[in-house]
Backbone:
């Protein structure tokens, strides 16, 4: 096996150039776990009701967070976690109305392994 080369993960080779920033990732998104998909669908339904009851800023935060939660969204896990944390923050300010949403968010974070 001497001389064999094995590559796992990304490999980048750059020779000169200017303004070299970032790297294009062409990996296909993985399918979302059915349990996670179901939990996110339930959360989305809960957020429709909460959105009408919170301040305009809270509603804007919900609106900005929803695209990162879409099951087929090609987002980094950190972006999805940040969106969930933002939603939990808005829900926490809604008192009893937001308590079930915070619970749902915590469940999703556990499914994602972020908690």
Residues:
């Amino acid at each position: 096996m001497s001389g064999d080369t094995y590559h796992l993960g990304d490999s980048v080779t750059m020779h000169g150039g200017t303004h070299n920033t970032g790297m294009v990732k062409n990996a296909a998104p993985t399918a979302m776990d059915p349990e996670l998909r179901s939990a996110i669908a339930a959360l989305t339904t809960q957020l429709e009701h909460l959105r009408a009851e919170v301040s305009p800023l809270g509603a804007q935060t919900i609106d900005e967070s929803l695209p990162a939660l879409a099951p087929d969204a090609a987002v980094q896990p950190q972006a999805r976690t940040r969106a969930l944390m933002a939603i939990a923050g808005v829900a926490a300010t809604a008192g009893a109305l937001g308590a079930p949403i915070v619970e749902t968010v915590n469940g999703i974070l556990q499914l994602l392994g972020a908690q």
Notes: The chain has a mean pLDDT of 84. The radius of gyration is 19 Å. Helices lie at 34-51, 56-69, 77-92, 99-112.
